[in-house]
Each structure stands twice: as C-alpha cells, then as structure tokens.
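> run fold OPT superfamily oligopeptide transporter
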Amino acid sequence: MSVLLDDVHVFERERTNSDLSLKKLDQEKISSVEVNVLDTFNDGPGETDSGIIQKAEDVALKVISTDDDPTQQAITFRSVFLGFGLSVFSAVLATIYTFKPQNASVSQLFCLIIAYVLGEAMATLIPTKGWFRYLNPGPFNIKEHTAIVIMASTASSVAIAMEVIAAIDLFYNENLNAAVAIFQIFASQMLGYGMAGILRTLLVYPTYAFYPSYISVVSLLQSLHFKGALNHKKRKYFWMVFAAIFFWEWIPQYPFPLLTAISVVCLIDNGRSPFVRNLFGAGSSNEGLGLLSFGTSWTLITQGSPLVWPLKTQINSYLGMAIGYLVLTLAYYKNSFNARDLVFMSTSLFGADGNTYNQSAILTPENSLDKAKLAEVGLPRYTATYAVSQMCYNFSLGAALVHVLLWHWDDLKSAFVGLKFLKGNQEIDDPHYQQMKKYAEVPQWWYGLLFVASLAVGIGCSYATPTPLMPWWSIILFTVISAVIAICLGFIAATTGFQISITYAIQVLAAFIHPGEPITVMYVNLYGNSTAFQTLAMLQDLKLGQYTKLPPRVTFVAQMAGSIVGSIFNYTMMIIIVNANREVLLDPVGTRVWSGWIVQQYNSASVAMGALGKELFTIGKPYWSVPFSIILGLFFPIPFWLLHRYTVKGTWLNRAAANVVTPIVALYVGYLPYSVNGQWWSCVVIGLASQWWARSRRPAWFRKYNYLTSAALDGGSQVIQFILSFAVFGASGQAVDFPTWWGNPANLSVDRCAATD
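> ok
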C-alpha cells in the first residue's frame, strides 16, 4: 500500500499536466465514443510525463527501457542448469495438461517466476569465491533470466505434432517408431523457427512489431533486475499484487465457483429456461454465450488480455462478440443447418439421432471411407453454433490476408523487393534494435539451412512407416502455404497482440487435396498449422530477446535447446500417458482425472474433413459454406480501407475506418461456442478502465504499473492454478471435490443457469 501512497502527490501533479496536454489535443482529444482512442501506452524510464501516447507501438519505447549492460553474462552455470531443468519440468507438465479435463497450460510468466526464485536462490547460496565463482559469477541478471525463460517456454509449447501423433496412435492404432516421432516433433518446430528467423527483419526488428502481450513480461523482467528507487517500488508493488491474487484466486476456482460467472439473469431464472441458459449461461463448458455475465477469476479474465491488448484490439473483439450474440442465437433458433434437435453448443460430431457420431462404423480396416457403410449410418452433423464458428474463423483468415496487403503494403514492398528481408543487418530506426547491433547476429543462412534441413527430416519421417503418412509434394505445398499465411498472421500478432487460428482452413483445404484420407488430413496439421503457429511463437521470443538485449546467438541456442528437450519429453510423457489410460482417452467424456478432448478434436476433424470432405463441404452439401467463407472473407477489409483512403483525413469516419480490424471482428463473431464465457464482460470493464481511462487520465500510473499489474495478476493466478491442479483438480491422479452449497451447487451449473445430471 505504501507504494501507492507514495505516488499520490505525483499522480495529482501528473493529472494536472495531463489535463493541460489534453486541452492542446483539440480535435485529437480522446473520447470513449471515437475509436481514435484505439492505441494505448506510455512513457518509459528516463522520460518526463508528457501526456497521452497515441500510437500503440510507442509502448515499446516508453514503457520498456533500452538500457543494456554488455558485460553481463547470459550463458552461465545457473542459466544452463535452470534452463535444462525447467525445460524438462515444463515439457512434462505441459504434456500432462494436454490429457487433463482442465484447460490449463504452462505459461511463460509461470516459467519466469519460478526461474527468478531459483536463480536468486542460487546466486545467494552458492559461494562466489575460488572455484565456485565459475558457478556463481555474481547477481542473477536479466540476460540469464531471459535465456532460461525462452528455453523453458519453448519446451512447454506442446507441439501440435505430439498431439497429432497421439491421435494417430489412439484412434488409428498407428504406432510410430520413437526416434521417428521425436524427430518429427522437432522438425515441425524447427520449420517454424527457421521461418521466424528469416522473417525477423520484417517482424522483429522494427518498432511497429511490438507484440503487446510481451510488454508485461519485459516490464516484469526489467523491474526485477534493474536497480534504482523506482524499480524497487515496482518490485514491491509486483509482489503485493502477486500475493493478493494468489490468496484470492483459489476462492472462485475451488470453494465458490459461482464467482467465475455471476449472472443476475441466471440467478433469477435458476436453470428453468433453456433460452436463458443458451444466451446468458456461462459457468460451464458449452453452457451458453455469457451475455451480461461477470467473472472475478483472473485465470479466466486474462484470456481477454484486458490490461495489455491495445484498445483498438479490444474494441474490435468486443464488436465481433456483440455481433456474435445475435448471429449465434439466430442461427440456432432459426434452425440453420437443421440444428434445433441438437444441443446449442458443442464441437462434437453428431449422428442423425442426435447422439455422438460413430466414426468407426464408416471406415474400413485401413481407415479409409467405406461408402456402403456410410449409406447405412448417414452423414455426421455439427451444431449450428459450431458450424457458424468455423465459418467465422475462415472469414477471419481470408480477411487477414487482404488486411495485411492493404494496410502494410509499404512494409511488404520494402522487405520483399530485391529480397531485402533476407539480409541480416539493415538500417532500422528502432532504439532496441540499435542497441542489439553490438552483438554478433545470427546469419540468415543459419536459419535457411535449419529450414531446409527440418523440411528434409520431416519428409523422411513421413516415409518411415509402411504407408507414407503424407506425400513429399504435399509436405512442401503446405509448408509454403503456411509460410505465406505466417507473414500475414505475424503482422497482425505483432501490431495488435491477436493471433488468428488457421486450423479449420488448413484442414478443409487438406480435405480437398487428400479426399477420403483421414490420417493424411490429420497429419497436414504438422506443416499447414504447426509451422505457422511455431513461427509466431518463435518471432515473439526473438522480440523478447531484442527487448532484453539478449545476444541473438544466445537466443538461437536457447530456442534450439528448448525444442530438443521439449521434443524428447513431450513424446516420452505422451507415450506413458496414452499406454496407461487408452480406454479413458478414447471415451468422449473421460474422467475427472484424464481426458482425451484435445486429441479427439484432431480425430473429429480428420473424419469430418478427411473421410467426408466431398460429402460435407463441396457445393450443394450441408456445410459447403464453411470452406468458401475464406473467399468471402477476402472482401471484408476492402470497404473500410476505401473509406479511410477516400474520406477527408482527420474526420471521425476516416479514423473509425482505419481502426476496424476485420480479421479480429470476424473471428470474435464465432469465438463464443467454446469453453466457459463468464469473464468477457469483466474484460470489457477492465479493458476500458486500463487502456482508456488509466492511459488517458492517469498516464504516469499507466506507464509505471499497468503492465506490471498484468504480470503480477497472471503470475499469482497461474501459480495457485498449478497448486490447485495437483492438490484438488486431479492432475496428481486424485480429484477432491469441494462440498456442495449455494455457491457450488450439485444439481445446477456453477452460475445456476443450467440443470445438471
């Protein structure tokens, strides 16, 4: 509390200064109505408070310090020991979470906090004199810490390849050789890494590529390691907020789950009306859309990134969600896709009788489509909300491709004309990049060689089975497609913090290229989906290294080491779990301890899109609109770009058109038919309070503490979530249910909106 009290007078002075600055803005005055408020951000170390930051990317210059101490060692006994140790731990834990009913993950902030505690302990406990000085060269520094975090978080990013290999094992009894499987996992990750390295002059070095979600991570790292009175106050503030959320978060998560989704409408209805449940329910997976439902669990709220996403990103997501309430409800109640006899929300495949579809009944022993059996069983069906959601994800991908071409054409032309992006050292006017030029860069040919070698290994692994899992030409084709898509998605992620899923689009495309081949369609995920996903993850880690001034070659080694460790332990742990729990993982419901819901998604898609692509997704078939949504999505950004280009500059219409990001709007229209939805209205309130009110009315607090607050809340909630997962949620093998009471009902969902069995 003393941290906040110390700043009261400073805040008052800065409020006066801010008000004076606001008066000078005239037509550029911030307004909650005008979307011109879009971008957030702040002012960094060493700068005076000068008002409100208008450009989102300026946060990278004004919140994050460019200070660097080139004498600090990054490769030490501590960083190597903790890097490998935490990589093993996070890879094993992430694989366990993959087969749990809880939707949990090992986050980068979780790795960061554990690494800090252990690193400081080693720096304190290991002697510094004599031979021990090689083990403990001095204070635990930011470069060691960053190297550990990059290595551990790379290992914890459970590879899509591992999930696909598990699905092939479970549902098709195809057991890959251990060496082949491990090399396949590693190769699919390294394809993305090689691609990220090649693109770093376009999507890492420049200021516009600021990756909003990483600002809080870097702010925390600098606050923990930089000296000075301000950083001492920041550290104190961080641990206060960390402790507060740590002791709070267990309450909504365990004894009082009603607090995860508070809906006045649901409390009044008390589970009587299906319509109320569908529209307002939000406490359980696939319960409802969560209209006007508020949550107090930060574990759920942080999914909307309300403290870190620029206001532009948030407003576009909320706009899409608002449209989604209407579209998804109408789709169901107007009986679109003949779905009124199915449940409102589910991602499963259903038969004509409304029960789970029996996929094994339509496949031959060789796992290809048996048309005679299909005629008897009939085609599978989607719920209306899931079909619309798939369309929206494909709308989003099509819109993303054109959005980047229209709004970032100059950047693309500058990079690709003369293949300028392939040149490692460029004149880029970014202070962080300029500071990095003192360190030896990773040559572009390293990344190029890594990319080619990984592609060769991937092709070889695909042919290391009696029947090739995927032909060589298809591997190359989908890798190229993924590379092109990764550039577009990279621009959006770098400038808005938002990541677009391409899973549906890739699998539908694979269904047309490999009709009637479910395993091949599933395997395509390694090259069409995983490669783009890994590219984005690696780009963000490269940016993290640039922000913290970690030498590029150390970043390269850390990512390579993390991928190697992760590949080995992802596969090893996956085999142990699958062999020990095969029947449970095959069950659509699973148990409170183990569940195969993640790998089942790959299997469902392989059946619907692989075996039945022509029967479901071609013109005139039940879901033909799903793949063709990509084409329609291509036109979404054009009207807004034309409005911005041909209306009077500076007018409300001109600015509003520039701030509409159609890929985000389109995706969020179909974002709600998944998991729980009790947190989104809390995200709206917190997002406006942070990225509009605090940024414009309390700019000094915003610069110093907004992103640190996000890191503290994320860190504290993730640590208690980890403890609860093993203590009571069944990650250790035994779940412990909290006794039922009004706030934890036995016969109603946690928000009291839906009756349960």
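The chain has a mean pLDDT of 84.
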